[in-house]
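Many introductory courses stop at the sequence. We go one step further.
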Amino acid sequence: MSHALPSSPADVAEVHRKLPSLHDFFHPGGLLAGSSLAFEHRPGQYTMAREIERCLARHRHLIVEAGTGTGKTLAYLLPALRRAREHQQRIIISTGTKNLQEQLFFKDVPFLETLLGPLRVCYMKGRANYICKQKLYALRDNPLLTGLEEISHFHSILQWERRTETGDRAEIDGLPEDSALWHKLDARSEACLGQSCPNWDQCFITSMRRKALESEIVIVNHHLFFADLSIKQQAAGAPDAGILPEAAAVIFDEAHELEDVASQYFGIALSNARFDELSRDTEAFLRAKGVSTSAIESATQSIRERSRLFFSSLPTGSSELGRLEFTDRAGFLEDRGDAYLGAFNALLRLEGELERLRDVEEASGLRKRAADIRSHLKFLLESTDPNTVFWIERRAGSGLRNAARARPGAASAPPQAFSTHLLATPIDVSTLLSETLFSRYPSVILTSATLAVAAPVSEAATEADAAAGDASTDPDGPPPASGGGSGVTEATAPAPETRAGKPGFAHLKRRLGIPSPRELVIASHFDYSRQALLYLPPGMPQPQAPNFLLQAAEKIRRILEITQGRAFCLFTSHAQMRNLYERLLPQLSFPLLLQGSAARHLLLQQFRETPNAVLFGTSSFWQGIDVQGEQLSCVIIDKLPFAVPTDPVMKARSEAIQAAGGNAFQELQIPQAVIALKQGFGRLIRSLGDRGVLMLLDPRIRTARYGAIFLDSLPPYSRTQEIAEVERFFASGAGSESSDKSAAPEPAV
């Protein structure tokens, strides 16, 4: 396995041997060409690898958009491995999703080992993914289990723990994702005893840390990276803080998600569930030890009662579920301060009772949890930080039984329980990231297939001048040519007066606070003008018009008849998705799948296995989905994916930009929508053999001045407004070898 460490002198020598140069690996006739992959030389892949190696060596930050099919994972893995080995350094690679993280570790790294020999690579997830031996053994000795299913799962986990080498819950078959039992057993830091734990040496977290310290490459995901970065920031650089080891550089794949993930972990979130979990864990741990007291039991019960009163007293919006800006916290404290103080003092009381249990190991961890919750509660209600937006979110209770998604006209179900979350989110993370990330690591590499956004017309000349100035003054010189240009040439360009500027990274640099990065856009390896046709149906009304849904249903029906289903229909709202699904259900003979009718992975499996299926989905299906083959031959999007302007975080960020003299629509809302649209359309062409049609029902991409920004940011799809062109596109591909999307799938690496 890739995470195995050298166990003999021969193995040690093997993992220290010199790795091949980029040229020897990537060039025609090189190592990669002689591998088991169906090799095709990709100039963009080699260009990207050279620039990453250059930036790692010169301690430079880099932003690189690598179009789908570039082979970007190999383009950053090999330079990272070479740098780490030659200079005895460690490099962290962070991915946006666990799926990509697992692809890197379980597929790409083993492939590289067949060419390069053993590699010292470690794979890390968040602590909640691992079993805590101490909790497991305590529950085994004092079983407090509920129901036959939980008892059965517990015995399965006990058997699994004896044979697992990693402690990763992903190895357990049949354990529900939302298992309450796992929550009692996972290795989250709140209940960790640290080095005082009797199972410290055998702990899976301890083992994972050891492997990370002995590895050249550590593969994580963005959530773990920023959770760790936040812990280290709060600990003011304490040497034992966090779980990730020190590193010389970080490479972020799927970097378009960084602002959202960083905002989540540099912010604070508190829910009624955290109070309930604290009470439950305190009772369970202390009862298992036989040291619980009536005073402690009274304190935990008080926390339950007072927290429920507090969360039920928070303001409500027009809808029971959803997000609401918490604007008048001072007024709330004046009117309902007793509810706040009741919850605050209940926590303080529990801390005092736990302080009395000086000889009980678990007590200190529980006391710290209570103190952390109390500190967060105080910040959420009393902080006056001007760079923070405070808001409330009420979420439906369990899984798919979501009252907000009930079908119109359906029989009303009993009200569903919901959880209430009180949140504080940084309005601008650029300064935080500049100080904690870009100043800390000598080299940070950001890459994704969707980072670049065409500049608005008013900014185009300024951006071009800035880019030219950077190239002339940078001692490294401009980045090497990508061999394919920027990849934004359009088959049918907008009128000159509405033409936008060249795609670039101005938005990303502003939002993340990246100081003086080098920039590179790699054109996709795919022939988009041949493989994809973008259909912009004429005569569509504006999205807010009363007849938009009627016209949209007709256009979708017509396209699906031509494509014979085999499509994703992607929507910007659940309501619009449900409406069009119900309009089209009686009109189409193809199997229609609706988001919410089953778990996401089951719907995807069903789509792949059902001929001519059509899947109706919202945001969770816009990215991170890879369906190769003719099964997906069409992607339909209802509207330009602008964020809801009244969302508390979006509203606060927009107001901050306007207050600073900027233009929030151009600087924030358009770039975010462009990247989301690129992600959605990116579901279609996933390999050299893929072929299909894209349809956008929103006429603003043609009629609004800002529409040119979207069009100039997209890959160079062929484009048409004629339905006859769509028919000819599919007719010309029917039965041809080039249209067989399953004939020669592009390797993931």
